[in-house]
UniProtKB/TrEMBL annotation:
SUBUNIT field: Homodimer.
Record-linked Pfam families: Prenyltransf
Signal peptide residues on this chain, from the entry's feature table: none
Binding site for Mg(2+): D21, E208
GO MF terms held by the record: ditrans,polycis-polyprenyl diphosphate synthase [(2E,6E)-farnesyl diphosphate specific] activity; magnesium ion binding
EC numbers on record: 2.5.1.-
Enzyme class: transferase
Family: Belongs to the UPP synthase family.
Species annotation: Falsiruegeria mediterranea M17
Protein name: Isoprenyl transferase
Length: 243
């Protein structure tokens, strides 16, 4: 991995965001139900989180359930919700011991109170950890996030806490779910689809994208390393011209 000329850190992405796609196809290819693929997908998360420090990745954000995923069959939605509950209960200790700080983004209103409690507890348990910041997007949609943020911003204007003329590009991000996170440097989508599906719309304005054919349950730490390495060789100009 090339070194950042200004520090000892690898010149890779500091914040990687992943659209974990392809669980259903992975299961179907094995003649198994879609939920089998989601369980296999959940198992990949630990290896990927643990590999982050090796590649200088400090922030990892993963798309676990979108605001559109409620349109799936009741069996699949219920299975995914049960998987999230089990995952959080089972992985909490290991994530904490690994020094991972876990946060959740997305709208909690539609989620089961038992799941919300587990999410709150995991955020509380890991709140002083700093090795890796893992953010799990659950009932998350970029448009929904911007709409919710705008509603809160409008309320602050109505309450006289904010003047409309002071609203600029720096204002809205303070109302987004991701307010304390840096923008993603690299967004990866597995399974061969080249679209962003409402993920981190505001935040990924200048992100690099990698669309790879690997189905999420086959994604490995080595593949993350390869993509981070590729990122280090790119020249990001943020709209400016290099002199
Ligand atoms: C997309 O694959 C994947 C999802 C909608 C769910 C993502 C969930 C996981 C990887 C498992 C759990 C994660 C955590 C944090 C416990 P798809 O079903 O759309 O696959 P397909 O495109 O092949 O049908």
């Amino acid at each position: 991995m090339p070194k950042d000329p200004h520090s000892d850190l690898p010149a890779g992405p500091r914040h990687v965001a992943i659209i974990m796609d392809g669980n259903g196809r992975w299961a179907q290819a094995r003649g198994r139900p879609r939920l089998f693929g989601h369980h296999a997908g959940a198992k990949r998360v630990r290896e990927v989180v643990e590999a982050c420090p090796d590649y200088g990745v400090k922030y990892l954000t993963i798309f676990a359930f979108s605001t559109e995923n409620w349109k799936r069959t009741q069996v699949e939605v219920a299975g995914l919700m049960s998987l999230f509950r089990r995952y959080i209960s089972k992985e909490a200790r290991a994530l904490d011991e690994e020094g991972v700080r876990v946060r959740f983004i997305g709208d909690r209103v539609r989620l089961d109170p038992k799941l919300i409690k587990l999410m709150d507890n995991l955020e509380e348990l890991t709140k002083t950890n700093e090795k890796v910041h893992l953010t799990i997007a659950l009932n998350y949609g970029g448009r929904d996030e911007v709409a919710r943020a705008t509603k809160r911003l409008a309320q602050d204007v109505a309450d006289g806490k904010l003047r409309p003329e002071d609203v600029d590009e720096e204002t809205l991000p303070k109302y987004l779910d991701t307010q304390v996170l840096p923008d993603p440097d690299l967004v990866i989508r597995t399974s061969g689809e080249a679209r962003i599906s409402n993920f981190l719309l505001w935040q990924s304005a200048y992100s690099e994208y990698e669309f790879i054919d690997t189905l999420w349950p086959d994604f490995t730490a080595e593949e993350l390393g390869r993509l981070c390495q590729g990122f280090g060789n790119r020249d990001r100009r943020f709209g400016a011209v290099k002199i």
